Amino acid sequence: MNILSKKITLIIFFLIFISDLRSQDKDNPWVIGFGVNAVDFYPTNIHGMKSEAGNSTKWFDQFFNLNDHYNYISAPSKLSIGRYLNESFSVELAGSINKIKKLGSIKLDKSISYYAIDANINYNINKIIGKTSWFDPYAIMGGGFNAKTGNSNGLPFKNYGSFNSGVGSKIWLYKKLGVKIQTIYKHFFNDGSYPHFQHSASIIYKFGGYDEDNDGVFDKDDVCPDVFGLVEFKGCPDSDEDGVPDSEDNCLNVYGSVKLNGCPDSDEDGVTDELDNCPYIKGEIKHNGCPDTDGDGIIDQRDGCPTVAGPLSNNGCPEPDTDGDGVIDRLDKCKFETGPADNNGCPVVIDNNYEELEAKLVELARGILFVSGSDKFYTKNEDQLNQIAGLMNDHNDLKFQIQGHTDSVGSEETNLQLSIKRINKVVNYLVSQGVDKSNLSTKGFGESMPIATNDTAEGRTKNRRIEIKIVN
After folding, report:
1. Least packed by Cβ within 10 Å: which of 83, 85, 127, 379?
2. How far apart are CA 416 and CA 451, in angstroms?
3. CB of 146 within 8 A of CB of 196?
4. pLDDT above 50: residue 146
5. Could you tell me the sign of the dihedral formed by the alpha carbons of 343, 349, 351, 357, in that order?
6. What are phi and psi of 110, to 5 degrees?
7. CATH number of the domain within which 400 lies
8. Is residue 325 part of a domain?
9. Which has the closest alpha carbon to 460: 418, 378, 420, 405?
């Protein structure tokens, strides 16, 4: 592989590692470059040639035939400086040297020194194809002067001005550093100055922007030009790295939340730790960051019953309702008997015609016996249940409440659940006998309302009972 091929291969290898790319722009308007160039006369239908063997009649024929047609020297042979004008145009002044040993396919007896100076205007092709950060293709138009005097193989070489056109691209490798590859066609209108392509590859460096604090934000755009900062904050610092610039950070040296102007919120409840009365327990803003689990308006740490809603007057705990009629004992004038709220918790006095019916239902219901610790009633009790169902069906305009009670054997919670199971057993049986379920309501009391002592077997048997109330 020849030297020029190696250099081009090396440049291509560098392209694989492109990173942190920035195109030339108004922030770094100047670009300098140095590199190598190659001159190729072959694919140009050379004007003024005296030997037809020196060129191809086909444009771009063997365009990449480095070994047979390219003229180059094994040293840096091109220097350039360019200036950004606007998003569309830039200008460039370049100087290059070479040794002409091949005029197309003709090998010269002696080499001809080649000197060129060119002034070109470049048009940014990204204006057409779309902007990129690392790839700047451009079209070239301009002119130059080529000095190459002497004779070889009977062919004259003369100095003359050229008309230039071509294409190229700047490829930015890292920040201000990149490579430039371009091809220019130089046309002449006199004999002895032969049209040719000049290919070049250069390392380029852009400069001209000022960044006093070296934070990557140019001074003209840097809100904090004397302090190292971040690009996303226009050059201003974020000391605690919480995403809030120091100028807007209310807790400058403590990592915090963007939503809370840089102040920490350990429990993420929307209240800054400084103002949070419960900084490590998620709470509510209206309670200064403390939780109120049951939503009764009393924070948990002051709530006697934090998981059950209750009034402040009772320390956040629900007030008792012994008979379960929905009227709290404090307001219930009959706290051991169920009744509606509009009657102060007392049962509504029913028509005398129903007193006898209710008494009969109570008598029958208390005759229903359950196995201790179970919701199973004895088969012999089906007669009482059938009579109860008959009475209810005869009075299907009435509403009945089925109440369940147990003895005190076992825990209160167990007995409460047992009383509910017994009620459901009775209700299911009554419904199976045609009673309208919508006429039935239930209430379990567990062991809380005994009618006899629980110290004897006889008393406990009486306490394991069902009662029925008319609740119209």
Report:
1. 379
2. 16
3. no
4. yes
5. positive
6. -140, 150
7. 3.30.1330.60
8. no
9. 405
Q: How far apart are CA 140 and CA 163, in angstroms?
A: 11
What pLDDT score does 20 carry? 40
- Give the end of a domain, one of 207, 227, 247: 207
CA distance 216 to 192: 52
- In a domain, residue 417? The reply is yes
Q: State the pLDDT confidence band at 48, using cuts at 50, 70 and 90.
A: very low
Q: Would you say residue 170 has pLDDT above 90? A: yes
**pLDDT category, 57, cuts 50, 70, 90?**
low
Look-up of token digits 């070994």 = 67
Domain's final residue, options 156, 183, 207: 207
Number of domains present in the structure of the chain: 2
Residue carrying structure tokens 């950060």: 133
Per the CB < 8 A criterion, the answer to whether 92 and 120 are in contact is: yes
Domain assignment present for residue 66? The answer is yes
Q: Is 387 within a domain?
A: yes
Q: Are 265 and 255 spatial neighbours (Cβ–Cβ below 8 Å)?
A: no
Residue range(s) defining the domain that contains residue 170 = 3-207
Looking at residue 61, its pLDDT comes to 73
